[in-house]
Every structure is written in C-alpha cells, then in structure tokens.
Amino acid sequence: MKILISNTSENPLYQQIKDQIKDAILKEELVEGDPLPSIRAFANDLSVSVLTIRRVYEELEKEGFVTSQVGKGTFVSTSNIELLRDSKRRLVEQKMQDMIQTAKTMGITKDELNAMMDILYEED
C-alpha cells in the first residue's frame, strides 16, 4: 500500500492517511482480512507519530473499515457492505461535483457534459 502525505496539504496528516486507506479499500486494493501495518512500523515508514497512526486506525475502526484484534493487529473489514457502497457513491459524487463546477466555469452545457461522460464511460 502506497501512502503519500504532504506537509503543504490543507488536510491534516491523519486525514490524508485515513482517506488513502479508505480509497484503497473502496477500490479493492485492500480486501477483507488484509492486515494493515503495525502502528509503529507504519509510523516509521511514513515518518509520522505513532499517535497519528493510532488515530487513523481508531477512526477507521469506528467507521467500520477495519477491525483491531489485541495482540494480532488491525485488519480490513468489509462487514458493513452498505457503508462501503455509500462511501463509494460519495467519492464519485465528490468527483462529479468538481467536474460539474469545472464544466460550468468553462461554459460547457449539461448536454455536452453528458455526451462526454457517455463517450468516456463506454471506452472502458
């Protein structure tokens, strides 16, 4: 799992890490049962505090994306499938909001935008 963090981002480090782990789960790069690195190892790899990683793992667990087992580690959990589906929809909606705003700024009509989306969607 490749995590990129930026000290110049508006988002705090823990949020950047958490969002990237969630994205990896939603994109199925991480699947049910996959172990996450230990807090200490992950903190060392990213050169951040263990408290930062602990916060990431705690929030991911509260949101149902991971489960922690004392003495064993933290593992990806997809027990709440509806939560995952909703998160995927929200991710797409956010990207669509950006796309719509850009299109409006550039004077692209809804019909033109829909035509572009149809073409691009069918290319895959």
Provide tags for this entry.
single chain, 124 residues, mainly alpha, Arc Repressor Mutant, subunit A, 2 domains, two-stranded antiparallel sheet, 5 helices, elongated
Class of the largest domain, according to the CATH hierarchy? Mainly Alpha
CATH superfamily of the largest domain: Winged helix-like DNA-binding domain superfamily/Winged helix DNA-binding domain
The radius of gyration over CA amounts to 18 Å
Number of strands: 2
- Strand arrangement in the largest pleated sheet: 1-2
Proportion in β-strands: 5-15%
Unreliable spans: none
Structural class: mainly alpha
Pattern of helices and strands:
HHHEEHH
C-alpha termini separation: 25 Å
Mean pLDDT: 91
Helix proportion range: 55-70%
The largest β sheet comes out as:
2 strands, antiparallel
Q: How many domains is the backbone divided into?
A: 2
CATH topology of the largest domain: Arc Repressor Mutant, subunit A
List the helices and strands and how they pair.
Layout: H1 13-26, H2 39-46, H3 50-62, E1 66-69, E2 73-76, H4 81-105, H5 110-123
Antiparallel strand pairs: 1-2
